[in-house]
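Here is one chain, start to finish.
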Amino acid sequence: MSLSTSPKMIKGGLVILPPGGNGAPTRTIALQYNPDTLSRSYQVQGVGGDGGAERAQPFRLKGPAIETIKFDAEIDATDRLEFPDQHVDVVEAGIAPQLAALEALVNPSAAELRTLESLASSGVLEILPPEAPLVLFVWSRNRVVPVRVTELSITEEAFDAVLNPIRAKVGLGLRVLSTDDLGFRHRGSAVFVSHLRKRESLAARLASSTLSTLGLSSLGE
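Its structure:
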């Protein structure tokens, strides 16, 4: 039986843009296997925290909720090592390049560190840390959000003869960046606002239930 009509499985991943988000992507990292679970949590932004202002205006939101995303992914070179002539890069380095690309998201580059040291040595009083690239988390067309990587854990589980990792589990924690974080002129803010609009459009598709579904005939009784 032909499977030509089967839907193509898309992958989640990360798109790396230059600092500020201007220009073409510098790298796209596709997950080798989509994780089975994806956890999301929201911290609601009320107007006054836990104090009196919150009690006086309990229904006002001062900004978008702070969303956190966490998931575990697997990277495995075993299948590719069965055909070494077709995957010379894997034979030479295993999955180290994939792991290094993720590590680059949480570290400044060696060149940036050298620049900071040079500025400090020359007596510059105020040194601004270099701006990191803009990272977009992509999980289908309905979920494209700017993020900062807040957690990265790597468990290397198997190695080749020269100790290149060939199988690993990666845990990623992401904080979604909103207009509060970026300001409205940043390209990432446009991505975030587009994401909000898509979520609102999805919510609008849901038909409203009736009060009787909840066992009520009217409110306030």
